């Protein structure tokens, strides 16, 4: 059965307004980050703020712009393959770039001391610890895909702008949460050891592979689109997901810092002790 094109994806003024709003939001987010980065450099010129992190945030917002604005957004409304490409950008590639920009660390450096302590308390609260657990992040990011594509949920979002934007928000937030838990440079309240995070990443790779293969074979999939579009979308999920997860694994390696053992700390203290002459 053919994919019904939502009415809000036409070339009318309402369609233009739909593209204008996310564009303005993304511009505001990029401007806000640049302003905070400038403030951080002025507050502590010696410490400064990494231009690489700034470039990461701008890259993430640019990827979101590619996904949410024409021509990709229009293609996503008309073709399931466009939807899947949009999903990859919003849910996997943009979140990794945004998370590697360390926005929480930037906020902590620029907020007044009292506000920074409040934010730290929120990050260390029990609800934050639960949400930031890798199993929860894995369930929200990868587990929800089976619910979306193997139930009538995806078809129910077609033609309903509010549901469509809620789906985008879920992709973005769950993707950011998973990238943050696995390889985020921002402080985490109870981030597990690297082996645990690698296991969670491996489960995510397996889940994407299984879901995409089932979708390609037409098993259990409940997507109102032609079979060739569904198979094409499955290929995009399979290969695009593999590349994104390899990038996430590389980010985990580059952001990982081994914890010092007691012997290492004693050695460091001995090296820093003054030497009698």
UniProtKB/TrEMBL annotation:
Q: Which UniProt keywords apply?
A: Cell membrane, Membrane, Transmembrane, Transmembrane helix
Q: Where is this chain primarily localised?
A: membrane
Any one Pfam family here would be: Caa3_CtaG
**Which range is the signal sequence, renumbered to this chain?**
none
**Membrane topology term:** Multi-pass membrane protein
Where does it reside?
A: Cell membrane
Q: Which residues cross the membrane?
A: 19-36, 57-76, 88-109, 130-150, 162-182, 194-216, 236-256
In terms of InterPro entries, this protein maps to: Caa3_assmbl_CtaG-rel
Name of the protein in its database record: Cytochrome c oxidase assembly protein
Q: Which organism is it from?
A: Streptomyces rutgersensis
């Amino acid at each position: 059965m053919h994919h019904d094109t939502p009415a809000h994806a036409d070339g009318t003024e309402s369609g233009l307004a739909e593209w204008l709003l996310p564009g303005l939001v993304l511009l505001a987010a990029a401007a806000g980050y640049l302003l905070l980065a400038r403030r951080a450099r002025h507050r502590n010129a010696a410490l400064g703020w990494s231009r690489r992190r700034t470039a990461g945030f701008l890259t993430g917002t640019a990827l979101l712009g590619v996904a949410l604005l024409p021509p990709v957004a229009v293609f996503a409304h008309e073709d399931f393959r466009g939807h899947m490409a949009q999903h990859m950008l919003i849910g996997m590639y943009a979140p990794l770039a945004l998370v590697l920009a360390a926005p929480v660390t930037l906020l902590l450096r620029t907020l007044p001391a009292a506000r920074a302590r409040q934010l730290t308390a929120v990050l260390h609260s029990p609800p934050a610890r639960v949400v930031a657990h890798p199993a929860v992040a894995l369930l929200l990011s990868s587990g929800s895909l089976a619910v979306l594509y193997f139930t009538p949920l995806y078809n129910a979002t077609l033609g309903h702008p509010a549901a469509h934007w809620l789906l985008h928000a879920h992709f973005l937030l769950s993707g950011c949460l998973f990238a943050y838990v696995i390889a985020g440079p921002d402080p985490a309240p109870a981030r597990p050891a690297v082996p645990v995070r690698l296991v969670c990443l491996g489960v995510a790779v397996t889940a994407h592979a299984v879901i995409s293969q089932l979708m390609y074979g037409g098993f259990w999939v409940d997507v109102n689109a032609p079979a060739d579009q569904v198979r094409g979308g499955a290929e995009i999920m399979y290969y695009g997901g593999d590349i994104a997860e390899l990038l996430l694994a590389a980010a985990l390696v580059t952001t990982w810092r081994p914890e010092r053992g007691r012997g290492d700390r004693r050695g460091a203290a001995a090296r820093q002790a003054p030497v009698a002459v």
